[in-house]
Amino acid sequence: QVQLVESGGGLVQAGGSLRLSCAASGNIFSIIAMGWYRQAPGKQRELVATVAGGDRTNYADSVKGRITISRDNAKNAVYLQMNSLKPEDTAVYYCNAAGIATTGIPFGSWGQGTQVTVSS
User: Fold this and answer.
1) β-sheet bridge partners, residue 58
2) Across the chain, how many H-helices and E-strands are there?
3) Could you tell me the pLDDT band of residue 55, with boundaries at 50, 70 and 90?
């Protein structure tokens, strides 16, 4: 099993910044990609940003220029630096990791989510 633990959510005023962290642990052989998704009340979960091998990144159009994803392969961790936050960024943010377990079986795991609330 692979577990993901997120931290760093909270309440911030519009224009402020937050940094989310996510660490993966368990029977990990390799992680192929990690990412962040979010789900606002009454809406579907949506992609925020992902990072794969060679630090290839992908961002939702709504966050480009304001949010940066980074990865620490040695720590099996991924981070989300969020600047110039807007009320519409309010959501539960979920960490995701996809890779290969020590058993040789592919895995895809989700964290428990961390709440980000941006007040206007």
Assistant:
1) 50
2) 0, 11
3) confident
